[in-house]
C-alpha cells in the first residue's frame, strides 16, 4: 500500500519556492510595516481621506500592498499570478473585489465581470472555481428587507426579481461552462436571503455534481446544524451539496450589532468553539462525500492538517475533485504550497479590480495582519526563516 507521509508546514523552501529574493524581501518589509498597528491606523486614515478627496493614491499602493495581495486591475493582469501559482499546482480563484456599489448599472457591471471570470476559468485549467458575493449584485438594504421578510414596494419587488435573475444568470453560466462557483457568506442579517438563493441554485444546477457552493461560517453557533440541514435538503431534493467552510470574517461587527440592538449574539462563545465546529464540519463533509463537495477556506494550520488527515484516513485520493483547501493570495503560502506539494487540491483567492475600488479589501488585509493574534507574526517569522536559509540576512 502507498505510504503517504503527513504534510508539514515547516518547509519554507517549498513555501516560498515561487518567490525571488527581491520578492521575498518586499514581502518581509511589507509584513514588518503592517505589523505596526499605529502605522496601519495612520495609513487607513490617510487612504480614506485621499479616497474621499479623490486624490490619486494608486501609485503609492501599486508596487507593494496591492502587488502582495492582488492579481491586478483586470483579468488580463492576473494571468501572471495565475500561471505562477499553476506551476506549483495551485489553482486560482479570480475574486472581483469591488465592494459597496448600489446603482443598477454598477450591479449589472459586476454581474458581467463575474461571468467573465467564469469564462476565464473555463479556458484555463489552473482556475478551478469562480466566486461572487451577493452584495456585489444586490443593494444591501434590499437584502436586509428580504432577509427580515418585510413587505416590499412594487419597485422593490421588481428590483428583487432582477437580483434573482442576476444570480441565476451567473450560476447558469457556471453550469454551462462546467465551472464550480462559490457564493461567499456575509453578515448574518442578510445571510438567510443569501442561503435561500444558494439553495435554489444548488437544487437547479447541482443535479450531476456540485457546481454551486454555498459558504458556511462556523463562527456562528448555529451553522453546524445548518450544514446538516443543508445536507438533508440536498438528499431529499436529490441534488449535490457544495459547501465552502470558513470561520467567518465579520465577528466584531456581528457582536457589536447584536449588543447594540439587543438580540442574542450569533457568534460562538469562544475561539475554541469556532475551531471545534469548523473541524467537525470538515469531518462531516468528508464522511458524506458522496453527496457533499467541500472547500476548506482557512489559514489555520490545525484545521488544514485535520482535513488532510481525514482525507488520508478515509483513503480518498488527495486530489479528489470534491475536496479543496483554499487560502488568500499573499497569505499563508506555507500552507498552500506545502499542501499542493503533498498532492492535495489547493486554490488561492486572487482579488483584483481597479486599485481605488479594492482599497477597502486591502485595508481589511492590513488590519487582519496587524492584530497580535493575527497572522503577521507567523508570516514574518516564516519569511525570516527562509531569508536566513537563503543567506539574505
Ligand atoms: C478562501 C477563503 C474564502 C473565504 N470566504 C469567506 C466568506 O465567504 N465569508 C466569510 O465570512 N469569510 C470568508 N473567509 C474569511 C475567513 O472567514 C477568515 O479567513 C477566517 O475568519 C480566518 O480564520 P481561519 O480559519 O484562517 O483561522 P484562525 O485565524 O485560526 O481563526 C480566526 C477566526 O476565528 C474566529 N474567532 C476568533 N476569535 C473568536 C472568538 N473569541 N470567538 C469565536 N470565534 C472567534 C473568527 O472567525 C476569526 O476570524 C474566507 C477565507 C478564505 C481563506
The H/E string reads: HHHHHEHEHHEHEHEHHEHEHEHH
Biggest β-sheet strands, sense, barrel? 8 strands, parallel, barrel
- Round the Cα radius of gyration to an integer and report it: 21 Å
Intertermini distance: 44 Å
Mean pLDDT: 92
* Oligomer designation: single chain
Strand elements, count = 8
Q: Give the helix tally.
A: 16
Describe the SSE topology:
Layout: H1 12-15, H2 21-34, H3 37-52, H4 58-69, H5 75-86, E1 90-96, H6 104-123, E2 129-132, H7 140-147, H8 154-177, E3 181-183, H9 188-205, E4 212-217, H10 223-237, E5 241-246, H11 251-261, H12 271-287, E6 292-297, H13 301-313, E7 323-328, H14 333-341, E8 346-352, H15 355-368, H16 376-389
Parallel strand pairs: 1-2, 1-8, 2-3, 3-4, 4-5, 5-6, 6-7, 7-8
Helix pairs in contact: 2-16, 3-15, 4-15, 6-8, 7-9, 10-12, 12-13
Bound molecules: flavin-adenine dinucleotide.
Amino acid at each position: 500500500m502507498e505510504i503517504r507521509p503527513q504534510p508539514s508546514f515547516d518547509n519554507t523552501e517549498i513555501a516560498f519556492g515561487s518567490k525571488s529574493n527581491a520578492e521575498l524581501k518586499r514581502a518581509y518589509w511589507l509584513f514588518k510595516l503592517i505589523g505596526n498597528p499605529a502605522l496601519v491606523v495612520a495609513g487607513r486614515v490617510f487612504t480614506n481621506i485621499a479616497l474621499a478627496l479623490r486624490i490619486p493614491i494608486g501609485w503609492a499602493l501599486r508596487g507593494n500592498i496591492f502587488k502582495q495581495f492582488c492579481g491586478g486591475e483586470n483579468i488580463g493582469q492576473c494571468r501572471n499570478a495565475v500561471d505562477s501559482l499553476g506551476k506549483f499546482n495551485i489553482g486560482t480563484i479570480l475574486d472581483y473585489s469591488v465592494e459597496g456599489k448600489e446603482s443598477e448599472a454598477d450591479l449589472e457591471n459586476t454581474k458581467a465581470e463575474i461571468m467573465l471570470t467564469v469564462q476565464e476559468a473555463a479556458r484555463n485549467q489552473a482556475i478551478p472555481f469562480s466566486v461572487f458575493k451577493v452584495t456585489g449584485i444586490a443593494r444591501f438594504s434590499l437584502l436586509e428587507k428580504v432577509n427580515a421578510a418585510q413587505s416590499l414596494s412594487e419597485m422593490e419587488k421588481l428590483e428583487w426579481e432582477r437580483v434573482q435573475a442576476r444570480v441565476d444568470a451567473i450560476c447558469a453560466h457556471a453550469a454551462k461552462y462546467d465551472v464550480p462557483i462559490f457564493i461567499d457568506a456575509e453578515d448574518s442579517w442578510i445571510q438567510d436571503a443569501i442561503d435561500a438563493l444558494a439553495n435554489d441554485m444548488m437544487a437547479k444546477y447541482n443535479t450531476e455534481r456540485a457546481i454551486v457552493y454555498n459558504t458556511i461560517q462556523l463562527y456562528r453557533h448555529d451553522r453546524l446544524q445548518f450544514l446538516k440541514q443543508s445536507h438533508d435538503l440536498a438528499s431529499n431534493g436529490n441534488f449535490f451539496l457544495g459547501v465552502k467552510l470558513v470561520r467567518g470574517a465579520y465577528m466584531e461587527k456581528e457582536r457589536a450589532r447584536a449588543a447594540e440592538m439587543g438580540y442574542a449574539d450569533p457568534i460562538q462563545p469562544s475561539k475554541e468553539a469556532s475551531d471545534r465546529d469548523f473541524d467537525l464540519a470538515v469531518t462531516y463533509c468528508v464522511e458524506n462525500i458522496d453527496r457533499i463537495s467541500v472547500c476548506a477556506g482557512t489559514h489555520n494550520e490545525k484545521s488544514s492538517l485535520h482535513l488532510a488527515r481525514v482525507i488520508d484516513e478515509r483513503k480518498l485520493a488527495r486530489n479528489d475533485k470534491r475536496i479543496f483547501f483554499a487560502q488568500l493570495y499573499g497569505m499563508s503560502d506555507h500552507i498552500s504550497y506545502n499542501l499542493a506539494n503533498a498532492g492535495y487540491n489547493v486554490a488561492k483567492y486572487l482579488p483584483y479590480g481597479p486599485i481605488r475600488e479594492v482599497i477597502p479589501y486591502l485595508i481589511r488585509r492590513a488590519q487582519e495582519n496587524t492584530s497580535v493574534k493575527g497572522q503577521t507574526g507567523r508570516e514574518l517569522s516564516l519569511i525570516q526563516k527562509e531569508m536566513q536559509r537563503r543567506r539574505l540576512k
